[in-house]
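hey can u check if this looks right to u? its 131 residues, i copy pasted from the old doc so theres a chance i mangled smth
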Amino acid sequence: MALFDDADGEVAGALREVGVADHVDSKLSEISNFRGVKGIIILNDEGHPIRWYFEEAYRSIAFSYISVVNQLLKKVAAALSQLNKVEPASWGEHVTNDITCLRIRSKKNELMITPGAEYTLVIVQDLHVID
């Protein structure tokens, strides 16, 4: 039995055929066992959840995080796009700014968001456990 809930059984079936899902499950299982991790969400390139793991006590907040993360990534990408337009040439070779990792801390939680071309990984940690 996989550790993670699956939003699309067909995706999981296709991944299992090539053995990718088992590798992903094992790596995400390692992450989920780190101290303070409340949950993990993997979003596809359209921002829809395809896999998630949350302890039962925190499962109700998982989908609220998904909505907020999608909105936040769009706003940060737009801001970086504006910065790319005004960056002085004197700063050297022009390299566009892209989001590689976004870390947000609130009074209760910390979100670590790592967007990629096809997937976005979101890890939610309880600050009271990791501090």
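The beta strands are 5-6, 37-44, 49-54, 102-105, 109-115, 119-126.
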